[in-house]
Design brief:
This protein is an alpha+beta fold and 864 residues long. It contains 27 helices and 32 strands. Bound molecules: adenosine-5'-diphosphate.
């Protein structure tokens, strides 16, 4: 099927005529040379001549025909328009005649040759003794020996056919024996050259004279042979190339449906050559069901188009049942109407390509959808690829990036040496990992964690670099926040440690004094003056302990947003009269001889009664005063207020103490603050006071600030709203001072208390009033005694064993709604108080309870 038509330089052929000029045999391209479509056997040669065109007719009738009739060996030429027809007439001894014809293109090298040389066929006649009886004139031009020397010599002796002599002799013998012509191709190897010859041996029987002979017509076919060899070689090369290219070949003739599949075509599908029939249907039947319809439509479209090249991909079933991906390419041969007459194409197994294509697609998709930025640069660092995440993170647009370098992201944060080190690492073939602080297109900074690695080709040369980076700005922020939180926690921890140490100190110091002096007071012989002094010390220390607990409770309340402000009318005159009395006593008691106390109250007339929480206002000023007193040894302390304007009042406490270091002024109002002991040796305390003052000032609608100069002193300023109220100030009833005034004779008081000391304390206060006392040690006791005795009032501890105070109160309330029940509790929070009231208590006394408070409260309910 791949036979291509090769061209020779000339046409050759011969006609064998019988004695009566009938065509017995013809060969080659005689018909072309005579320009005749049909040359029939047994036709009269005269008829052929008759049908030849004018000039040729003339040549044959006047030149060729007489030569044949004369039985003379003749060589004739006929010049045509573009070619020369050479005719050689060789009469055979049998009476037959061979007309050898050869046509050359005009002007080719043959036209320069003399006639015998032009003749390509050499004729040699041999008799049964293998003696040469005749050679044609051109013999010597081909064989180099004179014809006269060869004639009459034996083929055995003259070795005309060299190595082929024996073979030729055997052929001659065969022809003599069977009287049939034989044709063979032989290669005659001479000293200088090799030549291919076609040897036609024609029997020349001579029954009359018994002089049989064999005519050997030697035709030079060297050129054709070489072309043929070349063709075979090229055919083989083509086959090998197809094999090497891994291509299966197919050929389909559309009209006849004649189909060819090469060995490789079948091997791709796992079949041996004889296992598969070569038909179009086979291809169709092996198509994947999902590809079949598509391919049939595709082929029909192709056949009706005017396209030359056909290319398609589809799956075909392999012998093992799996499907193989095939890429089919073909070229179409179309007739003059454009109809495809033949398709010739190849099959390539692209299953692996498809697999890696799919893998590539998956990877590509993963990279395109990844939130991690991927950039590929060439070896010089110019960007060749980037994914959408890169644009999203950096803010650079697609068309702006290609051809740029990643240095567009440089923020200037990393030094040049950083990038030098990076390049050194990657250009020596290693991976670099690290963090960049980069800049987006809009100038915003961001952090990324990146890995940059080289991509090498199969020779190990770096061709590209790939950078994979994650935006870790949020991690950096978390890291920063964590660092800050850690620092804060460390500071808080330091504060806490300092606070605990201070607390321990603040609690132990008064307790130590209380315990110590309580011990001393036991001495019966102690003079009453000393006893009074000692009990004063014990009380003072108990008060400071109580203040500390109050502070802690205040802080807890502030933190829980529980501290409630109770605003009421408050006289500034009275407030400052109280301050004067209290603070003078304080200073006296502290025995600070070099300290002067001054008060500064506005001289001009002003509205005196304001609407505020007097208890909390006093708490702030007291705190500031206590601090001033604590730290100031000499000079003066000034306490006062002034009217700033119609809506603002300013209170202040100033001193000439050590002052506060500037760097600590910022935190002085913070919770658990403390000033380094090295700078302020007197600085002990819980560190709560000023923070409470600040919170209270804010709750009162004002603020507190400080100014201080180290070594000179400090001034604390409290600004409050000047809320003037018109209502007259209700003076509090003067507090009863002497306990002896109370007389509860004839009444029964129940003290519900599980702690004997607490009971003892209350008993010793109330017993002096003449009341009968009942002691209930737990909740069950309370209910039992209450049932059995007449009780006028109950002092109810809340945390009682068995049945707690709330429950006991609730039970009693059911039958005695009007009985006064006073809760006494160490729970000081607002909700505890509320709980007591809800359980049915009339009033709540928070421990420690002062004697005065016990007596006034009981008196209030007993109406005494
Ligand atoms: P504390 O209850 O421990 O006194 P404060 O909050 O009242 O705590 O005070 C905090 C710190 O401020 C004190 O430990 C002290 O170092 C400093 N301070 C407060 N008032 C004065 C003052 N008048 N003169 C010097 N230092 C002061």
């Amino acid at each position: 099927m791949f036979l291509s038509k090769y061209k020779t330089e000339s046409f050759t052929g011969y006609i064998l005529l019988t004695e009566n000029l009938q065509v017995q045999e013809f060969s080659g391209q005689v018909n072309q040379m005579l320009r005749k479509d049909h040359l029939d056997l047994n036709i009269d040669f005269n008829l052929i001549i008759g049908s030849l065109k004018r000039k040729l007719h003339y040549f044959f009738e006047n030149e060729v025909l007489p030569a044949i009739k004369k039985k003379a060996i003749r060589h004739l030429t006929f010049n045509r328009k573009k070619s020369v027809l050479s005719v050689s007439i060789t009469p055979l001894s049998s009476g037959e005649t061979i007309i050898s014809l050869e046509e050359y293109a005009q002007g080719d090298r043959y036209s320069d040759l003399s006639w015998p040389e032009k003749m390509k066929e050499v004729l040699i006649r041999v008799n049964p003794n293998l003696e040469i009886s005749y050679v044609s004139q051109n013999f010597s031009s081909y064989f180099g020996e004179k014809s006269s020397l060869v004639v009459s010599s034996s083929l055995v002796d003259n070795q005309l056919f060299k190595d082929n002599t024996n073979f030729i002799i055997s052929l001659i013998n065969k022809v003599f024996e069977h009287k049939k012509q034989i044709s063979e191709d032989i290669l005659l190897v001479g000293e200088q050259k090799k030549n291919w010859w076609n040897v036609l041996l024609i029997p020349e029987p001579d029954p009359r004279n018994h002089k049989d002979s064999v005519l050997i017509i030697l035709k030079d076919i060297h050129y054709q042979k070489i072309i043929e060899e070349k063709f075979i070689e090229s055919e083989q090369r083509y086959e090998m190339a197809m094999e090497a290219a891994d291509l299966g070949i197919w050929d389909y003739k559309v009209d006849t449906e004649e189909t060819f599949y090469s060995r490789k075509w079948k091997a791709i599908l796992g079949y041996y050559p004889d296992e598969i029939t070569e038909s179009f249907d086979v291809w169709q039947s092996l198509l994947h069901p999902d590809d079949k319809d598509r391919m049939i439509v595709f082929i029909n479209n192709f056949l009706t188009s005017d396209l030359r090249i056909y290319e398609a991909e589809f799956r075909m079933r392999h012998k093992n049942g799996n499907y193989v991906w095939i890429r089919s390419r073909a070229i179409a041969m179309r007739d003059e109407n454009g109809k495809v007459v033949r398709l010739f194409g190849t099959h390539r197994d692209i299953t692996e390509v498809k697999k890696s294509e799919n893998e590539y697609k998956k990877l590509h998709q993963a990279i395109m959808q990844s939130p991690i930025s991927v950039v590929i640069t060439d070896k010089d660092g110019y960007i060749e690829f980037f994914n959408p995440a890169f644009c999203k993170i950096t803010g650079w647009k697609d068309q702006e990036i290609i051809g740029k370098k990643p240095s567009i992201l440089k923020s200037g944060f990393q030094p040049a040496s950083f990038y030098e080190k990076l390049w050194k690492t990657i250009s020596s073939g290693n991976e670099w990992q690290g963090e960049f602080k980069n800049r987006k297109k809009n100038g915003e900074y961001y952090w990324e964690l990146a890995s940059i690695s080289p991509i090498k080709n199969s020779f190990g040369t770096i061709t590209h670099y790939v950078k994979i980076a994650e935006n870790i700005s949020y991690l950096k922020k978390i890291e920063k926040d964590l660092k800050k939180a850690k620092q804060d926690a460390e500071i808080a921890n330091n504060y806490k440690n300092h606070f605990l140490a201070n607390m321990s100190h603040e609690i132990r110091t008064p307790i130590n004094t209380i315990i110590g002096f309580s011990e001393l007071i036991k001495n019966e012989n102690l003079p009453s003056q000393k006893r009074n002094k000692y009990s004063g010390i014990i009380e003072e220390n108990s008060q400071s302990l109580l203040r500390l607990i109050d502070d802690i409770i205040d802080v807890a309340k502030i933190e829980a947003n529980e501290l409630k402000i109770k605003k009421e009318a408050c006289s500034l005159d009275e407030l400052f009269a109280e301050f004067e009395m209290t603070y003078s006593n304080f200073i006296k008691r502290k025995q600070k001889m070099n300290l002067e106390l001054n008060f500064q109250i506005p001289d001009e007339a002003h509205h005196d009664v304001i609407f505020t929480d007097p208890y909390r206002l006093k708490q702030i000023i007291n705190n500031l005063f206590v601090n001033a007193l604590k730290y100031t040894e000499r000079g003066h302390i000034e306490v006062g207020y002034s009217i700033i304007n119609d809506s603002k009042l300013e209170f202040f406490v100033s001193d000439t103490g050590p002052g506060i270091p500037a760097n600590q002024l910022k935190t002085i109002f913070k919770r658990f603050n403390y000033v380094e002991e090295t700078t302020n040796p007197n600085s002990t305390g819980s560190g709560l006071g000023l923070s409470i003052c600040k919170d209270l000032a804010l709750l009162l609608g004002g603020d507190i600030t400080v100014k201080s100069v180290e070594g000179k002193g400090s001034i604390f300023t409290l600004i409050l709203p000047y809320d003037k109220i018109k209502i007259p100030l209700v003076k509090a009833a003067p507090k009863p001072t002497a306990p002896a005034r109370y007389n509860f004779n004839g009444t029964t008081i129940m003290i519900a208390e599980d702690t004997p000391y607490n009971y003892e304390y209350l008993y010793s206060i109330l017993q002096k009033t003449g009341a009968s006392i009942i002691w209930a040690k737990d909740g069950i006791d309370v209910l039992k005694h209450f049932k059995n005795s007449k009780v006028d009032i109950i002092l109810m501890d809340i945390q009682l064993p068995e049945i707690n105070g709330y429950e006991a109160t609730a039970q009693i309330r059911k039958s005695h709604p009007d009985l006064p029940i006073i809760a006494q509790t160490a729970y000081a929070m607002a909700e505890d108080r509320q709980k007591c009231l809800e359980a049915g208590c009339n009033e709540v006394l928070v421990k420690p309870i002062r004697m005065d408070d016990v007596l006034t409260t009981v008196a209030k309910y007993l109406n005494k």
